[in-house]
């Protein structure tokens, strides 16, 4: 480990506190005054680069990927508009896109979030009764090693959808009841619906258990004997299923167990339109984001070629977004690629993903929006950080920037859109809903608590 340069960063709670105390209340108030209630007919755009934010990296000479990436689009928004930071993940909740984006859509996750299961269920068009519980259900590969039970693969070798559907159908046929069934999805990702079931169980995401002895997690299901019985029956069916026998003979990991997790009842989200008096649309390749859009009563728009990866149809998302703004007041465009490559741990690809997001989404959007209006407000942000160094999500605050075409008529100073610039701004929001209400300016802000 080289000597760590003392530099302002998001990485510690102390740094955050110190930074919050750096600015006086007066300074915060002055900074926040710049936005006034929006003009009639204003169009709103939220561009989310999933997991773009990061920590400073030695390889980058103590800079972050956002800092070194080429981002004239986001720099423009920060330089002409406002930049700040936001605590999108409430303490005590996991730093997932589901939690963060629920907040950015204005719903406080600490009150509304019930689990990812029901959000995924909504994305598949499943409508649950209030007493029903939806679990995300993986097909997984478990393996005995002596007395240990190991989570060998959380995806059963990324099993094909075709094989998975056949396995799920067998499970439903022989183990399903009038209360429990699995709704097949894609590859290893499915939904288990337990009608009138319990949601209070402690469950563990299988990708967090990879390679570990999982008896503790498996025995946690004992709390709910009805569900446990279903799991055991499913394992018996999977164990001798022809598809798994074939997979074994081909040296592929068998899908020899189901793993329900992330459960909850459907969150009660009041319609976005009712709350904000704005008609909104969402564009994303990710099921969770789609599910949130549906639950919030927002229009979800499918874009051909949207993959959730580096090869996604960036311009297509913008084109569909511009089109949507003719009928809607607000559009949210979510791009997953920076998060995916951060999980892969590729610094090079992360910088590339940010460059692409800026060039093909942010700048392209700025180019095209003027075709339909000269009154627009644009928010660019990440949902959460996905630091390369940890290859997983972080709960630390995220940078954001807002540009208002009516108010921001001149450049304030040359700013680089990055964590450090954001962190040096007096505008900090302690939640996603606060950032959204600042952006939409529909509600007075209570800065005293910030
Ligand atoms: Zn992620």
Keywords:
5-stranded antiparallel β-sheet, 13 strands, 2 domains, globular, 450 residues, Alkaline Phosphatase, subunit A, 18 helices, alpha/beta, binds zinc ion, 8-stranded mixed β-sheet, single chain, 37% helix, disordered N terminus
Give a written overview of the molecule.
It is a single chain. By secondary structure, the chain is an alpha/beta fold. The protein contains 18 helices and 13 strands. The longest helix is centred in the last third of the chain and has 23 residues, at 347-369. Mean pLDDT is 91; it is low at 1-8 and 443-450. It binds zinc ion. Zinc ion (ZN) is lined by residues 51, 339, 343, 386, 393. Zinc ion is lined by residues 51, 339, 343, 386, 393.
* Beta fraction: 15-25%
Distinct helical segment count: 18
Query: What global shape is seen?
Result: globular
Give a short account of the largest sheet: 8 strands, mixed
Our Rg estimate from Cα atoms comes to 23 Å
| Helical fraction | 25-40%
Low-confidence runs = 1-8, 443-450
Number of individual domains: 2
What is the number of E strands?
13
> Could you give the distance between the termini?
36 Å
The main sheet orders its strands as 9-8-10-1-11-12-2-13
Specify the structural class.
Answer: alpha/beta
What's the pLDDT, averaged over the residues?
91
Spell out which ligands are present: zinc ion
CATH class of the largest domain, named Alpha Beta
Any idea what the CATH superfamily of the largest domain is called? Answer: Alkaline Phosphatase, subunit A
Q: What is the CATH topology descriptor of the largest domain?
A: Alkaline Phosphatase, subunit A
The CATH architecture of the largest domain: 3-Layer(aba) Sandwich
């Amino acid at each position: 480990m080289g000597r760590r340069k003392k530099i302002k960063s998001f990485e510690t709670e102390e740094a955050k506190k110190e930074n919050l105390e750096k600015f006086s209340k007066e300074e915060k108030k002055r900074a926040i005054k710049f936005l006034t209630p929006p003009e009639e007919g204003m169009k709103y755009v939220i561009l989310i680069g999933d997991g773009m934010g990061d920590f400073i990296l030695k390889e980058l000479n103590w800079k972050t990927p956002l800092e070194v990436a080429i981002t004239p689009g986001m720099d423009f928004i920060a330089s002409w508009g406002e930049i700040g930071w936001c605590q999108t993940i409430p303490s005590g909740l996991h730093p997932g896109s589901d939690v963060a984006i629920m907040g950015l859509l204005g719903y406080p996750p600490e009150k509304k979030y019930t689990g990812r299961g029901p959000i995924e269920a909504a994305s598949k068009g499943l409508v649950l009764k209030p007493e029903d519980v939806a679990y995300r259900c993986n097909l997984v590969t478990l393996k005995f090693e002596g007395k240990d039970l190991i989570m060998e693969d959380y995806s059963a070798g990324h099993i094909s959808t075709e094989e998975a559907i056949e396995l799920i159908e067998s499970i439903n046929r022989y183990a399903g009841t009038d209360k429990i069934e699995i709704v097949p999805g894609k590859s290893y990702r499915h939904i288990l619906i337990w009608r009138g079931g319990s949601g209070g169980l402690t469950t563990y995401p299988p990708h967090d258990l990879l390679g570990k002895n999982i008896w503790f997690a498996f025995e946690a299901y004992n709390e709910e004997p009805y569900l446990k019985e279903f799991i055991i029956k499913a394992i018996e069916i999977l164990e001798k299923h022809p598809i798994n026998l074939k997979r074994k003979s081909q040296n592929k990991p068998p899908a020899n167990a189901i793993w329900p997790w992330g459960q909850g009842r459907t969150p009660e989200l009041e319609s976005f339109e009712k709350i904000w008096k704005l008609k909104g649309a969402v564009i994303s390749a990710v099921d969770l984001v789609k599910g949130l859009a549906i639950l919030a009563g927002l229009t979800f728009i499918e874009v051909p070629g949207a993959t959730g990866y580096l090869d996604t149809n960036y311009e297509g998302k913008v084109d569909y977004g511009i089109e949507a703004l003719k009928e809607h007041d607000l559009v949210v465009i979510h791009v997953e690629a920076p998060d995916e490559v951060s999980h892969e741990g590729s610094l090079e690809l992360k910088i590339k993903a940010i460059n692409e997001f800026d060039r093909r989404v942010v700048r392209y959007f700025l180019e095209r929006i003027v075709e339909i209006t000269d009154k627009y407000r644009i928010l660019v942000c990440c949902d959460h950080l996905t630091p390369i160094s940890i290859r997983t999500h972080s709960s630390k605050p995220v940078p954001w920037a807002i540009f208002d075409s009516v108010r921001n008529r001149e450049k304030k100073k040359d700013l680089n859109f990055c964590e450090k610039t954001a962190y040096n701004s007096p505008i900090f929001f302690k939640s996603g809903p606060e950032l959204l209400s600042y952006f939409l300016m529909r509600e007075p802000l209570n800065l005293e608590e910030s």
